[in-house]
TrEMBL record, chain A:
Signal peptide: none annotated. One of its GO terms (biological process) is sulfide oxidation, using sulfide:quinone oxidoreductase. This is NAD(P)/FAD-dependent oxidoreductase. SUPFAM superfamilies: FAD/NAD(P)-binding domain. It holds the Pfam family Pyr_redox_2. One of its GO terms (molecular function) is sulfide:quinone oxidoreductase activity. InterPro entries: FAD/NAD-bd_sf, FAD/NAD-binding_dom, Sulphide_quinone_reductase, TAT_signal. Residues 56-171 form the FAD/NAD(P)-binding domain.
TrEMBL record, chain B:
The chain crosses the membrane at residues 19-37, 49-67, 87-109. This is Uncharacterized protein. The keyword Membrane applies. Keywords: Membrane, Transmembrane, Transmembrane helix. The lineage of its organism: Bacteria, Pseudomonadati, Pseudomonadota, Gammaproteobacteria, Chromatiales.
Length: 454, 115
């Protein structure tokens, strides 16, 4: 029994600390009190006391996940040297882009500054990581700066792969009837110009959905339904034909919502085209090419909502941190993590959260809200050489806006079971309340999340 | 995913953060007026309470009718008990807030009318 215990302790030490020299130093300083808790209850939402450590922690990426991690680590650790690497100073509230692209919000509403959420006492390197070297516990920035770490948190976000669609580039958004809600406020604003014109003039509208994991997978659906709703409101609906060419054979990963949408789209005269992968676009003649099991299909359009496939950023995708085989490698070379602990299985001092990780569902701000406390708590427990106790259950959420003023608050987990935060809000029915939450409350919840408060 | 009480308060703080300086100013002024009314012994007068209740009721009714439009929607979007109870609850909350804010100046107004 004693030998088993010693063996377990040795194994934990070996897992927790990669470098023997630093290991001794950290062992002396890292044996603090109980770690951060996951935020599920009042008492567990913040650490009772910060854990003393001299660990060097690097956070790669300063988006929603990175900033939330930074705040939680800054609160939960004392003496740690925390560095965040993020080039952008501007912060974009991406969950609001569907409302910008459909003319409901002004783009100013989604613009913010990262500095407002950056905790004091951490180093902010304004650069991009161009190389991950987990064997040597270091990353290299695009300016050549080498940053060494004891623990690494990867929150890079993802890459929207416009180049994967032949003939497509971001300059085309806002011209030739092309829109794309993804990536930034400028794209969303230019998309609104195209949707506004389409809603007036009508014609054929193609609303695409690529294969694989994408961030906010509800966005292509919401853009479709909000555009259809806009034309109903303007009294121009009969001028347009709506098509939803999608790469798969379903509309939503959660089965109840999938059933709902499979009834909702036909009832609104939106034709779903299964197994249609957007392969190319010819802007000058407004024609799109779709790869289908029966061969390429060319469709003319007056408006097309282009949703490119998405993948891990190059530096991450090309590193040993990426999944090396399997569906997450084939899909987007996402970062490999244990789907419950958020720790890398081959590099135990590396954790990940947010859009970049390869987990079965997720890539929403709500996923970040659930993943970050788990990843941070487990990292702190690893620093303390304790057993990791926090577990991510796959929670994700989509306020599925079906029309301006109506929506369904859909929350589910890895098992695809509904897990509503507010039991009195039905996850199966359209209501005004989820719309009010989307319009008025969720941005506030997102900001609170970035401050590490929820 | 459950929200803790601290979490809910943090979200509410973020909701009002853009208006925080204005709200703090209003609360401070109201608090000063409250102290003045307490010193003059006119806080709990039927006239002051009646005026506060009337203002609160008017605010609640206006909120009830305007809230859908203020949230870029309409009454046609409301369906079922959840939506209507939320609207009524929100309107009552705004009404109580306005009544509380109106009470101290109403009490001082009563005093000045008497003197």
């Amino acid at each position: 029994m004693k030998n088993q215990l010693l063996s377990l302790i040795k194994e934990q030490k070996d897992l927790a600390l990669p470098d023997p020299g630093r290991r001794r130093l950290l062992q002396a300083s890292g044996l603090g009190l109980a770690g951060l808790a996951a935020g599920g209850t009042l008492l567990a939402s913040q650490p009772a006391k910060a854990v003393d450590t001299s660990a060097r922690i690097v956070i790669v990426g300063g988006g929603a996940a990175g900033l939330s991690v930074a705040n939680r680590l800054a609160d939960g650790l004392s003496g740690a040297r925390i560095t965040i690497i993020e080039k952008r100073e501007q912060h974009i509230y991406q969950p609001g882009l569907t409302l910008v692209a459909t003319g409901i919000w002004n783009q100013r509403k989604v613009l913010d500054r990262n500095a407002r959420y950056m905790p004091s006492g951490i180093d902010w390197i304004k650069g991009l990581v161009s190389e991950f070297d987990p064997e040597s516990n270091r990353v290299v920035t695009d300016s050549g700066q080498v940053v060494e770490y004891d623990y690494l948190m990867v929150t890079t976000g993802l890459h929207v792969d416009f180049a994967a669609i032949e003939g497509m580039n971001t300059d085309l958004i806002g011209t030739q009837g092309i829109g794309c809600v993804y990536d930034n406020n400028d794209h969303a604003t230019r998309t609104w110009q195209m949707i506004d014109r389409f809603a007036e003039e009508g014609g054929v509208g193609l609303f695409t959905r690529p294969p694989g994991g994408i961030k906010c997978a509800g966005a292509p659906l919401k853009v479709t339904m909000l555009t259809e709703d806009l034309m109903q409101r303007r009294g121009t609906r009969e001028r347009a034909q709506f098509f939803y060419p999608t790469a798969g054979t379903g509309l939503f990963s959660q089965p109840d919502m999938n059933d709902f949408l499979k009834q909702e789209f036909p009832s609104r005269d939106i034709t779903v085209q299964w197994n249609h992968v957007l392969a190319g676009i010819e802007p000058e003649i407004k024609r799109a090419t779709f790869a289908t099991p029966e061969g390429n299909v060319r469709l003319d359009y007056d408006f097309i909502h282009v949703v490119p496939p998405m993948r891990a950023p190059d530096a991450l995708a090309n590193s040993d941190l990426a999944w090396q085989a399997g569906s997450f490698a084939d899909d987007g070379r996402w970062m490999e993590v244990d789907k419950h602990t958020m720790r890398h299985p081959r590099f135990p001092n590396v954790f990940g959260a947010g859009d970049c990780v390869g987990t079965p569902i997720g890539k929403t701000a709500a996923s970040v809200k659930a993943q970050v406390p788990v990843a941070v708590e487990n990292m702190i427990q690893a620093i303390q050489q304790r057993e990791m106790t926090a577990s991510y259950n796959g929670y994700t959420s989509c306020p599925l806006i079906t029309a301006r003023g109506r929506g369904i608050l859909v929350e589910f987990d890895y098992a695809l079971d509904m897990v509503p935060s507010f039991p009195f809000i039905s996850p199966y029915e359209e209501h005004w309340v989820p719309w009010v939450m989307k319009d008025r409350m969720l941005h506030a919840a997102y900001n609170a999340m970035m401050r590490g408060r929820v | 995913m459950a929200f803790s009480i601290v979490g809910i308060l943090s979200v509410l703080l973020e909701v009002i953060r853009p208006l925080l300086p204005l709200l703090i100013a209003v609360v401070v002024i109201d608090f000063i007026l409250l102290l003045l009314a307490l010193r003059r012994g006119t806080l709990v007068t039927s006239g002051a309470i009646r005026l506060a209740v009337i203002v609160g009721a008017i605010a609640a009714v206006i909120t009830f009718f305007l809230a859908p439009a203020l949230t870029r929607s309409s009454f046609a979007n409301l369906s079922g008990a959840l939506d209507y109870l939320s609207l009524i609850g929100g309107a009552l909350g705004v009404g109580v807030l306005f009544a509380l804010l109106t009470w101290p100046p109403a009490a001082l107004l009563q005093r000045s009318q008497k003197s």
